[in-house]
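tokens incoming
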């Protein structure tokens, strides 16, 4: 089965990638194309054949390794994650015929390199395969290949001003809808439309299906976290999700506002903003603020209708290669525990990328959480070592609510990072990073202590 998937990717690459870039047009350069049907006119090559001659194909390879050990009762591995995976990607972006119409397509294969444990969120996860008890009993990660994007696109003007749209199987990033993912972006079956005037942009997104990175196909949206994929699940269907968004992004600043709805399930609203001050000597001071709120709706809402909110802000001072960051955050969800930023219960179908106080092992958005974050990073380019960078951050949280009147908990996390990106030569753009993390939750019911390390290496080439 996996050989067929890889053959599928290879054929698609040959048809839409650098093979197209190397192929000579059937119409000599500078000549007219074939006659426009029903007229005596011809189609200029520079209009129609821009679809191919101005296309781009990106081939990517990404290794992801993770070893997370979670403290569980009786020393079980119920919360552990061990994964070694290779992701091979192909992303084709056409040019625009008549400077207006084009199409994009993407595919990727996620390959499990060794036996693992747990739900990695980077491999296809079969919830119903519990054949190996050593994997934690919650299903198994497996290798797979998918056609992850296939969309038509339109633009009114080459400079991005005016109206633009995408429709099909596509990422959408408007207002409260987003497609943040892991190794490859999640996608919707839907449409996004935007209108831009100068630094102002108004957009709308709509979708009725969604594919997580850990799924092998697009599925209808439901009020079930696992999307109705496990045995015995009886989810209610969410007919669609949609969002309207407004963005104003002048130089050194932005304001982003969004309102979203998962039909008969929940409504959300959010606002984010940032401003960067340019200081003497090239130093900068950047502030970011974010506020989110969401509420479940009948009849598809959870048993206890959740009314949730989150606010966080940060300020970062950068001088030379050094960056210093401080952030504060607060979350509330008395009916559901952890704040859900999504328009559905599952997947990353949201635009929560503005959270300022997250950590590698926890977003620190449980009910009652008040969190402080401090971080430092350094780029060694100024020291004659371009491409090398290191970082460290710490989160300290109080007020995490426990059930049944139990005392509130405290939690803290320390994250480290070290990375290198090749700056020149045929491997330019290749990178590798190591990301250790330690999370301690005390007596908090919602999450246990964790030791975690990730290794991520990537390389891509665009033709």
């Amino acid at each position: 089965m996996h050989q067929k998937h890889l053959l599928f990717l290879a054929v698609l690459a040959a048809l839409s990638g650098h093979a197209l870039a190397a192929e000579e047009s059937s119409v000599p350069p500078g000549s007219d194309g074939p006659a426009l049907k029903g007229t005596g006119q011809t189609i200029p090559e520079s209009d129609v054949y821009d679809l191919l001659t101005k296309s781009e194909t990106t081939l990517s390879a990404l290794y992801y390794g993770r070893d997370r050990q979670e403290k569980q009762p009786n020393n079980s591995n119920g919360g552990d994650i061990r994964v070694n995976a290779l992701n091979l990607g192909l992303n084709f972006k056409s040019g625009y015929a008549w400077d207006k119409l084009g199409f994009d397509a993407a595919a990727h294969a996620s390959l499990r390199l060794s036996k693992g444990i747990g739900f990695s969120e980077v491999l296809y996860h079969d919830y119903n395969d519990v054949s190996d008890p050593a994997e934690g009993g919650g299903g198994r990660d497996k290798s797979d290949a998918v056609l992850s994007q296939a969309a038509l696109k339109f633009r009114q003007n080459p400079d991005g001003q005016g109206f633009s749209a995408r429709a099909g199987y596509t990422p959408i990033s408007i207002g409260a809808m987003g497609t943040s993912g892991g190794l490859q972006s999640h996608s919707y079956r839907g449409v996004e439309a935007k209108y831009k005037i100068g630094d102002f942009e108004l957009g709308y997104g709509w979708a009725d299906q969604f594919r997580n990175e850990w799924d092998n196909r697009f599925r209808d949206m439901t009020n079930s976290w696992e999307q109705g994929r496990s045995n015995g699940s009886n989810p209610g269907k969410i007919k669609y999700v949609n969002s309207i968004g407004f963005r104003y992004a002048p130089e050194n600043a932005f304001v982003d506002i969004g309102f979203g709805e998962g039909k008969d399930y929940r409504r959300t609203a959010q606002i984010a903003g940032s401003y960067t001050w340019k200081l003497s000597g090239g130093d900068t001071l950047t502030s970011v603020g974010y506020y989110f709120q969401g509420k479940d709706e009948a009849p598809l809402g959870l048993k206890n209708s959740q009314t949730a909110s989150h606010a966080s802000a940060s300020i970062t001072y950068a001088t030379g290669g050094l960056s210093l960051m401080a952030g504060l955050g607060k979350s509330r969800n008395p009916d559901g525990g952890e704040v859900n930023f999504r328009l559905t219960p599952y997947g990353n179908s949201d635009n929560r990328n503005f959270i300022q106080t997250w950590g590698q092992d926890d977003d620190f958005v449980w009910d009652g959480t008040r969190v402080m974050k401090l971080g430092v990073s350094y780029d060694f380019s100024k020291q004659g070592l371009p491409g090398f960078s290191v970082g460290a951050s710490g989160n300290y949280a109080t007020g995490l609510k426990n059930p049944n009147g139990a005392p509130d908990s405290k939690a803290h996390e320390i994250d480290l990072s070290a990375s290198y990106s090749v700056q020149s030569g045929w491997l330019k753009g290749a990178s590798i990073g190591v990301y250790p993390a330690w999370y301690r939750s005390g007596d908090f019911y919602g999450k246990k202590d964790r030791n975690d390390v990730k290794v991520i290496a990537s390389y891509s080439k665009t033709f």
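note: The helical segments are 2-16, 18-22, 45-48, 50-53.
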